[in-house]
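**Backbone geometry record:**
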Amino acid sequence: MIQTQLEDLIRQALKKAQKKGDLPKFPLPPITVTRPRREGQGDYSTALPLQIVRDVNNALKANQAGSLSPLQIGDILIRRLPPVDFLERAELAKPGFINLYLSPVWLARQAGEIAKQGAAYFKLNLGKGKSVQVEFVSANPTGPLHFGGARNAAIGDALARLLEHSGYVVQREYYVNDRGTQMTTFAMTLWRRYQQLFGLDVSIPEDGYPGAYMINYAEKIKEAYGDSLLSLPDEEIPAKFRELGLKIVLEELKEDLAMMDVHFDEWFSEQSLYDDGTFAKVFAILRDQGDLYEKDGAVWFRASKYLKSDRDEVFVRSNGEPGYFASDMAYHYHKFIIRGFDWVIDVWAVDHQNQAKRLPGALQAFGIEPERLTIVLYDLVTLKRGGKEIKISKRSGEIITMREVLEEVGADAARYFLLSHSNEARIDFDIDLAVAQNSENPVYYIQYAHARASSILRKAAQAGFIPQNANLDLLTCPEEQALLRKMLQLPEVIANAVERLAPHHLPHYALDLAKTFTSFYGHCRVLSELPDQKDLTEARLMLVLAAKITLAYTLGLMGMSAPEKM
């Protein structure tokens, strides 16, 4: 990443200046190089002279050696910069900035490096093999996935992709909430719907699931088992219909998520925490540590011992059922202690924000540092058509499912728009825009840029032009250099998205890249029929190939396709 290379260059200059006596000795500070906000201030800039002026002058004062201004410090650092091929020059700017200008020749030659290395050119090693689990979607398995869950899927999968391409070993997990009262209610609702299919006059439980999808589930069971389940003993009904219903829902969930190209390494059962003794072990640990106590017939966890709060959490309810916080603690004990993940990322809806604040700290009860658990919160999605909010499904008159929207707008459009806002911002998802086949739709615009690059390369191959061994030093016009600079930003975008766990930086970059490519294409003729333009044509074809690779890689990080034709 050129940004870190420049930071290292500045660090070398500072060390050399200290070694040669140009600057006094003092501990080296963190060195940051950023992109300037205004044009004409270099490709990158550092404010290091302003940041170290106090340290410099304190050290000089101790040696009774006068003082230096930020501009003087900057001048010393510039003179001590090692010569490198990627830096054309460094300039001093008031009140103490160093503006850094990349070499146009070096920039041009990066088109060849991208073409040669492909996606590997952009990969980072931020994780250095660190294991991270991303747990996302994890909707209750009591019905079809609401479209709001698609945002969870888009965020979680994009984060997993970013982390994988940044040197982390990633596991994707879906946590199946397959125990407790809700599953019993689900099972009994399904049982009643199954009975109704045989003409029995029964009603679903008062707190049951009234959706028509429960009838569909019951019909699948009838098709598989006929009326044979009507004779089940009463005590076997909840477990049997829980088992059958769960299987149906999970199969549909996997099909729906596959439509978005979202797949999981593990579908982890909440019930397994109780079957394999994990919860009992966690309970014993907390009890022996004195972290549990009884009150009002329930068992409470001393959360106040680990959190800046005087509020404790119900661990086991008065009816003997573990509380939500207890299951979450047992689940995360399993993640960290039993399975040994270095880092865990949970993607939760924003209505879980209070629990998200408390769970990481509570894990200290097991010796787990809070920073090893990161909970990414996301806000709601509002569907709109014709400027008006859509509240219910046209198909069923009930909830709008993820499948229904994906069938209409496609997975690429869904992913892009669901990723295009910061996680905690609400989204107005405009269906009309998502399906539009014109430049107003950013999804169409970006994918069309990739298809155009592919078309140029196909036509070039037919004309006998193959982008290899080109004289890339010819790529000097502003639009060519702008495209090169934009492509080189991608590793920084990835690093920023990983650091902040904010995948919304990707769609914005992708659109900027597509616009920059379109500007290049509009200003610079690629395929020329003039024989004296052969060298320039080959150089520009190499640039087109590099842009195609960069566009495809960016789309892939978002889980979107890169079409060859449109």
In short: The chain has a mean pLDDT of 95.
